[in-house]
Automatic annotation (TrEMBL):
<feature type="transmembrane region" description="Helical">
    <location>
        <begin position="33"/>
        <end position="56"/>
    </location>
</feature>
<protein>
    <submittedName>
        <fullName>Tetratricopeptide (TPR) repeat protein</fullName>
    </submittedName>
</protein>
<keyword id="KW-1133">Transmembrane helix</keyword>
<keyword id="KW-0812">Transmembrane</keyword>
<feature type="transmembrane region" description="Helical">
    <location>
        <begin position="7"/>
        <end position="27"/>
    </location>
</feature>
<keyword id="KW-0472">Membrane</keyword>
<dbReference type="InterPro" id="IPR011990">
    <property type="entry name" value="TPR-like_helical_dom_sf"/>
</dbReference>
Length: 341
């Protein structure tokens, strides 16, 4: 009987709360539109009815148990009823939220998550999925303290100023530059991109810095300067050299740069230069003679201390079977490769 009394009292209290809530909703007619109030009222009525049905089922179930003479441990009844009741209510809310999502009514789904289930994260996700980006951003920021998700939503809402402020707080300088660019503010965009470049250079990530110059700032000459600096200062030297040559599309200019840079290459980086030449050799037949001569010079200079370097000859003479035989004879000690091939 304790369970029945609890449920009966709960139903009575529930009806009282429903009446008060309905009066409160109707009172909103003084400062909101009729359709806005009507929508809120309908949502509340649906939820209240579902809630009421659950309560009635529980009451009937307890009556049946009482009549059948089932016994429970003293003191366990109320706890069991409360747990069962609230589990059912929660499941009902979950189903209601999913129903609204299936109907693409994401705002109502968010209200169920936030107001009834107290799940702000899923509420924000529902708003975001439904395209209510500004509203989602507010939930992320105010309730969840998640600046990253809030900034992302403000960005999707094209509220770039708010997104920029958050990205600045998060230290995402490249993202700040991107959004300034979306606002056609090249000056501020480049200022933040330059900060990104400086960070990359400070960490010896010269190639990444060059990509910011080239792709974000539209400064290809600056990109080449930073790559050349990386090569000369031996900071990720091979990748800098490889990208430097890759950015030169004119074959004549490329040949000239290959020759000029080789003349300035110190001895301790000539093997790295040779590795880069293997890539450049494949680009155009017009480059073959100049690159082959450079390769021969490097191999001749380094063969005494790096005997395995003779294997590199095959990359510059892919169709020359004589060279391949000479390499084989050299490796077996029966002959020497004539320098300059």
């Amino acid at each position: 009987m304790n369970k029945q009394k609890f449920i009966s009292k709960f139903i009575a209290a529930f009806f009282l709360l429903v009446i008060i809530k309905v009066i409160g909703i109707l009172a909103q007619l003084f400062h909101k539109s009729f359709w806005s109030v009507a929508g809120t009222l309908m949502l509340f009525i649906v939820i209240a009815l579902i809630f009421f049905v659950v309560l009635l089922r529980l009451e009937d179930k307890e009556k049946e148990k009482s009549l059948s003479g089932r016994k429970k441990k003293p003191g366990s009844g109320n706890a069991y009823v409360e747990s069962s009741l609230f589990d059912r209510i929660r499941n009902t809310y979950e189903e209601l939220a999913q129903k609204y999502i299936r109907e693409n009514d994401y705002k109502k789904a968010a209200k169920v998550y936030i107001n009834l289930l107290r799940d702000h994260y899923r509420g924000a996700k529902a708003l975001e999925e439904g395209g209510w980006y500004s509203e989602a951003a507010v939930i992320y920021l105010k309730k969840l303290k998640n600046k990253s998700e809030a900034a992302h939503c403000y960005e999707k809402a094209k509220q770039y100023r708010k997104a920029i402020d958050l990205y600045k707080e998060l230290g995402q300088k490249e993202k700040v530059g991107d959004l300034y660019l979306e606002m056609n503010d090249r000056t501020h965009a480049n200022a933040y991109y330059q900060m990104v470049v400086d960070d990359y250079v400070g960490n010896n990530q010269m190639v990444k810095g060059s990509l910011i110059y080239r792709k974000k700032m539209d400064l290809p000459d600056k990109a080449q300067e930073i790559l050349l600096r990386g090569w000369e200062e031996n900071r990720d030297a091979f990748n800098c050299l490889n990208n430097y040559f890759a950015n030169i599309t004119d074959v004549k200019k490329l040949q000239q740069q290959i020759s000029d840079l080789y003349q300035r290459t110190p001895s301790d980086r000539k093997i790295t230069y040779l590795e880069a030449m293997k890539h450049e050799f494949k680009k155009a037949p017009e480059l073959h003679t100049a690159i082959r001569n450079i390769a021969y010079e490097i191999i001749a200079e380094k063969v005494a201390t790096h005997s395995e370097i003779v294997n590199e000859l095959k990359h510059f003479n892919p169709a020359d079977e004589v060279i391949l035989k000479d390499i084989s004879r050299y490796k077996t000690g029966r002959n020497r490769i004539l320098k300059g091939g």
